Amino acid sequence: MSATGGERRVPEGSVPEGSVPDGRIPAGPVLDGPVPDGSVPDARAAYAAYLDELAGTHPDLLALAESLCLAAGVERTFLRRARLRFLPRTTAGLEAELWFSPLVEATGEHTLLLAPRAAEALRERLAHGPRERADAVHAFTEETHREAAPLVRWFEGLLWAGLFPGPGTDRLLTRELRRVLTAVTADGADADDLGRWALHYLPRLPDAVLRHDDAWRIRVVSSERLGLDLPPDASLWHGRTTARARALGRRELPIGVEARSGGVVLSRPPAAGTRPLRAPGLRTVRLAAVSALTPPPVAAAPVRLELTDDRSLSLPFTVLQRLDPGGTPVLSLAHSGGAEEIAVAAGDVVDGQGVQYAFLARDGAIVRHTADGRLLGVLPAPASGALRRSLGVSPDGGRLVWIEADEIHEHTEAEGRTSTLPLPEGARPHRVCFPDSGADAETAYGTEQGMTLRRRGRMDLVLPGVVAPRELSRLPGGRGRAVVVGRSGDLTLRWNRDARGRFLTLGVTALADHAERRIGSAALADGTVLAWAGSPDDRVPLGQAPWQITALAVSADGRRLAAVGGDSRMLVWGLGRSAPYEEVPLAFCADHVFAHPDGGWVVSGTGGPVELTTEDGRRHRITPVPDDTPEDGPPAWLRDAVLAEADRSGIASLLAEPSALARLAATGVGALVVGPYTPPPPGRTGPMDEIAALRAETRRHGLRIVVDLHPPRGPQDDVLLLDCVRRWLDQDIDGVRISAGPEIGARHLDDLRHLLDGYEDRVLIRSGPPTAAGFRSEQGDLGAESDACDLLQPGSLTIAFVQGFGNGNLYTHAHRLRLALEVLRSSGLRAGWAHTLPDAIRPAQRRSAAAVLLGLPGVPLLPPDLLGDPAIATLLELRRAHPALSRGAFDVRPYTGLGLLAVVRTHGGETVLCLTNSGAEPATVDLTPGYLGVPGPLSLLDLLDGGTADCAGTAPARTVVDGGGVRWFLLLPAPGRAYPGTGPVAR
Hints:
One of its GO terms (molecular function) is hydrolase activity, acting on glycosyl bonds. A hairpin with an 8-residue loop joins strand 20 and strand 21. Helix 1 crosses helix 2 and helix 7 (about 150-165) runs antiparallel to helix 8 (about 170-185). The protein is of the alpha+beta class. The protein contains 25 helices and 55 strands.
């Protein structure tokens, strides 16, 4: 390598041997492997000894190196000036000797960098030598680097301060380190560049500098923002110091979360259609994920996730749940990652004595659990990489069998031994399993003659012409017969005496049987379920599922049949009686079902609610949202929406500020309601141009437009109204809100409905005037109109808000809210309902009133300025993340506290408690399961700060709601309890 180009890199902490051709430079010290920064006394001693040797053999080279040791980097001009300043009698060859010496870590075309430990040893020699010599080197370095970058001068100043500490050194170090710490925690690319520089140069500072907490914080924050692991000497620092350092650089970053049928998907930035969640991070967001279906002590360890920018990741969960005969979950297990197969013991297994449930993971490992859900152990994946399949568990849980590399393997739990079961020469195993009764596994293997079913102690059953069928089952009752499902789903009866068998073109998707009661069943591709006793020749239709069935199971007593099909429901039929099936709701998507000996079921599948924990300890429950939008209901986009309500001045403000609409769209608002407008006469555009300009801007941000109309009055006004709405629809508006009045009745709304139906996904909202009259009379007036409207905006809700917030005692008027919503819900009206924020509410109470609206069923309409409030924006994110808040049932809970309103929202497996204090003073609330109307004990997850509190009947959870404050809690089962479920529903 020439001295004029190229680059040499030396691993930090070791010095390679090297010398110039004349051999005057001794070889460098040999160190045992790389040495971490900050704790290398052996390395220092080795370099000190090497420099002592160099002092005797090549003192000029040592003197030149000492003159460079206070510099961050040594340019060629710096090297030349140092030689001329301190060693004027030497030649330029000395520079070349240093350039290629073991003291140098790396060289470039114009710069060299001393090895960190070499520079440290050189500075120690300089500090222990004459002070005049050290002052001269310091003055020379300052003078030569006077025009260098500020970071270079900063680094060299800290080097000198650490080398010769004085009375003000600590204050100097604290000030200078804090200045850089502030810079690396700022936003922008400059902070990234500074972080890279800090990670490279900070470890080269003296120990007196590195012992400062801020020096360590700079390195931690720099690593965090660059997405790197912590520096190798992290173990030398207290964990709390490191955690606080990492928190300095974090920002609240938005990520998208979507609970799918298979698990949870995270995206950063949030992908379209995902639910928003904010988590602390910088370059990397770190979260822990665990299935919410498995409370301690059954719960598995959380999965640690790291999400960088412009990245999405998917985390699947495999779930198994045991249900009692009534359909209530009594045990849940979940494993991160997908499972290839799941096996369940068909008999009674004593807790802790055998395997009740076994998961075959995708990597080939077999995870075993006892009957009470505890982890029994893991059989590791085969080292050969061979695939495993066809997992089975004996009825007593004592043995497992599976196919591996075309061999049958059997594992005995009592002995902890795995052996290979014999097969005829040339046989290829197709399936191995344990029947519901009996201690011996049955093996299906293929030969030239066809498929053979073999069980120890029984005659082999040969199935001529059958090659690798999709499913095999012995016909209930035995007698040497079997049911075969081919690859195309055709079902065939085969037995030894008839090589042809009997062919039934049925398109079977699942089989199940009960050998003792000679009951069999099959599911067809169209969802039809057949059942028979004795022979499939006597099959009878049992019913039809709403989807294609993937698995069937006959209960232990032979009286019921369960079916699943990749849906969050299990269907149960009664055998031997004509009755519709019952639906058992599940918290995940099930694709397999097994009969449990107690008469219940074991269901397995994927997905379910997931709990995410951020680095700062906040917990978030992510629940799958079923697609339960009614076919004849409002447009799908309106189902979970929040609408922004802007008058003429508000529209002007939105158009005047380019980023205003972008900020509004970022809150998750579904549409902008603008107006009110009066339809212009024919031939005049009036507000049409203004609406067109606004529509052009909102379309770019994904926002919809709903126009608020004040109907005209006159003999031809109905024609004028329809013509105006048609012209606006042609300008691509998304709906109309019609203000109340006696001149607008059911006939006018029917005409508008027919007009809007000619356009896709358009909404019609009917608003009523504020009235103190009872809601029942108001509802009677709107009853006929509700068939045409998508949303009704009853005025009685407005009165309840004005009265409640007007005197700071919303609870005493909560009966108005309850009455209004209960009548709407029970009246069978087609329309949903909307709530607007009354103008009469005082400014100081607008935030509390908006929080109440966001916690009530229906579609809230809020002004844009309030939607931009950070507190309201947080509630909007929570509302989108928890379907119970937007589409759940509700109940207003009684409470005697002045100004306190408590609303419980339930949907699917979610229950959310919304507490709002409309008064000025704090309100203390004691929450118990009885008060909440939910079986306890419970854990309350605070959706706003991520904290938790437990409550039971005798030990309530006490919480304080500040004056004008809001608290939202997600109700969870207490630790150690199964996930709450509901019983079956007849269909």
